[in-house]
Amino acid sequence: MVDEDIKLLLENWRQYIKESEEETAYFGKWVDRIPEMYKEWLTSLSASAEGLWEKHGFNKIGEGSFRTVLAPKEDNNFVVKISRTKMYSNMNKGEFELQKRYETLFPRVYFHSPDFRWIVVEAVSPVGLEDIGEWTLWQTAKKEMPNLFEIYIGGVKEWREKYKIKDDDDMYPVDQIGLGFWGFVLNSLRTVMGEDTFGEVDSSKEDIKSYFRSSPDPYFYELAQAVSSNNIALWDLTPQNMGVDSNENLVILDASIEDHINDAEDYLGLT
Question: CA-CA distance, 241 to 264, in Å (whole number)?
Answer without folding.
Answer: 26
